[in-house]
């Protein structure tokens, strides 16, 4: 299976989803679309199931203390609903690290609208959670969210990029205390604090 082909299909489906929400389609167009999609639902359902796993060689290298380049660190999936470019239902945010700080940039299109003209707060929470989740990986750990608290300061805009930024404020054993913020230019949209709990890396190895 081609990664490029899968990504291209996801991009097309994602664009269609936003257009479906943002455009007035005729009844005839809706019937035609339903017929086409139903056919593809049946075809896709006949295919083998996919299993998402971290590459075992990367996990084992990390366990052994082998330094991995940024691109090889197991920090996410291409199918992630927040950052995966191969998820047709996702936000497709762009993520990167600068030193010990994690960043993400995303644009909320029509399908992620909450109140009219505003991005959905729950989608913004997912963006914050995913960005904060990169922090333990910077320090050589993988962790799950234990607690996430968000203060919304301004409306989340549609159709233009917003920037998330996260950093660690304190570590206590397996506990990572993390702070994050989202900005629309100079405007603070939201800020958050979270507790992430590191887990045994072996739990991410493929099942035998």
Automatic annotation (TrEMBL):
GO terms assigned for molecular function: hydrolase activity
GO cellular component, one term: mitochondrial inner membrane
Database matches in Pfam families: 4HBT
EC id: 3.1.2.2
Keyword Membrane among UniProt keywords: yes
Ranges of residues in domain Thioesterase: 120-189
RNA-binding in keyword set: no
Enzyme class, spelled out: hydrolase
Keywords annotated in UniProt: Apoptosis, Cell membrane, Cell projection, Cytoplasm, Fatty acid metabolism, Hydrolase, Lipid metabolism, Membrane, Mitochondrion, Mitochondrion inner membrane, Transit peptide
Subcellular location: Cell projection, Ruffle membrane; Cytoplasm; Mitochondrion inner membrane; Mitochondrion intermembrane space
Substrates-to-products reaction catalysed: octanoyl-CoA + H2O = octanoate + CoA + H(+); (5Z,8Z,11Z,14Z)-eicosatetraenoyl-CoA + H2O = (5Z,8Z,11Z,14Z)-eicosatetraenoate + CoA + H(+); decanoyl-CoA + H2O = decanoate + CoA + H(+); (9Z)-octadecenoyl-CoA + H2O = (9Z)-octadecenoate + CoA + H(+)
GO biological process: apoptotic process; fatty acid metabolic process
UniProt topology in membrane: Peripheral membrane protein
Family: Belongs to the THEM4/THEM5 thioesterase family.
Name of this chain's protein: Acyl-coenzyme A thioesterase THEM4
Organism expressing this protein natively: freshwater metagenome
